Amino acid sequence: MAGTTTFGPHERRPELKALTGLRAVAAIAVVVSHLGVPKSLPEELAKIAHWGYIGVPLFFMLSGVVLGYNYPELTFRQGRRTIKFYLARIGRVMPLYWVVLIYCALFYVAINHVNYPKVFVMNLFAVQTWGGDLLAAQSRYNGPGWSIGAELFFYAVFPFVLPLIAKAARRWGLRALVTIAGAMALVSFGLYLFFVLTGRADLPAADPGSAHRWLYRNPLCQLPIFIAGVAVAFLLPYVRHWSDLTHHVIQTSVLGYVLILAMIRGEGGAWGAGSFGPFFVVPFIFALLSLASDRGWLARILRTRPMVTLGVASYALYITHRWLVWQLSSTDPVSKGHGIDPYIGFLLTICILLLVAEGAHRYIEEPARRWIVTQGKYLARRYPSRRAIPAQRQAPAEERTSVSV
Question: pLDDT (tens digit, 9 = 90+) per residue, 79-90?
């Protein structure tokens, strides 16, 4: 698996296996937060499960890391290569996204449920997350699809942001990269403080001015987290000298921070607003720096074959699970049932979702991506290159290591 790239506008780089395994953790965390947990589960564990949606901002940062690692010298001036980059990104996330969207619409027709033509078109172009209507963004069709709109925005700005970070890294080195990552963390936390101090953190999610609408769903407010991830990609060479003990400490500390914060959190809007990303920017930076080395106890777990296999199909799990959870009608039995039945139902539902995700990845996502990337190569050849693509000092990572949510 490592070091074998078959598709995409880049050369070969070693797979960051622990980060691929981390994708599985993030996707399953989101699934659990939507599925619910048995009511007999201890309160502290239930709080952790309900905060599983923090996997979304983790995906955004992880996406920045892997794109920066894959394309360290991409610029918007490289016409052919930029076209291939954009087509590779579309091929990575959109085919399965469209298949699930069409399935949702057809299911509405089959059960004589009302369809929403305007919302369907918004979903078709993945722009639903830019609007203030919560139902249009997360309820009418495939709820998790809103984050694909955010990812497409990150893809669009990446060839423009990356050269700035790369130039700063070449000119000022470690100091510049730490400054960029730290500044992005401060911007994210500054937005959080604004919403808390103005009382918007307490507004319901359906309110167009709420923290949920802006800090969680608006791509502009999540952009600092993505940029911090790109900076992390350029920081990776600087952590090679870290000892195994350092990796153990970082991974244990970050995991402990996330779990303890989830268990002790209150119910106020400030806690929810912070969970949309601002509470985790700095911890996630350290975690990704450490895990990308494939060293440390947690990295060794994440890089195992089962975790990597789950990680490869994590996007399919993420994009298909919400609709299937509703169709399986498993939420109420799991969260309200008694005895051992809710736990059996929970495990069976997870297994079904994983099987569906593996099938969707293998028979829809991958074939469609390969076809689009192949067509993109032919299209790019017709586009006149404005400048020669510089020889890369490092070959980029496996296409399947790319992270999308």
Answer: 788 888 999 999
Closest to 404 in 3D by CA, of 146, 89, 127, 95: 89
Q: Which residues contact 211 (CB under 8 A, 6 or more apart)?
A: 192, 195, 200, 201, 203, 269, 272, 273, 276
End-to-end Cα distance, the chain: 22
Contact 394, 13 (CB under 8 A): yes
Q: What is the pLDDT of residues 334-363, one digit of tens each?
A: 666 667 888 888 888 899 999 999 999 999
pTM of the full predicted structure? 0.89
Residue 141: CB atoms within 10 A of its CB come to: 26
Nearest Cα residue to 295 out of 16, 30, 10: 16
Q: How far is CA 22 from CA 124, 203, 216, 273, 357, in A?
A: 29, 32, 21, 23, 16
Residues 6+ apart with CB under 8 A from 49: 32, 33, 36, 37, 41
Tens of pLDDT along 274-297? 999 999 999 999 999 999 999 999
Nearest to 39 by CA among 335, 333, 345, 340: 335
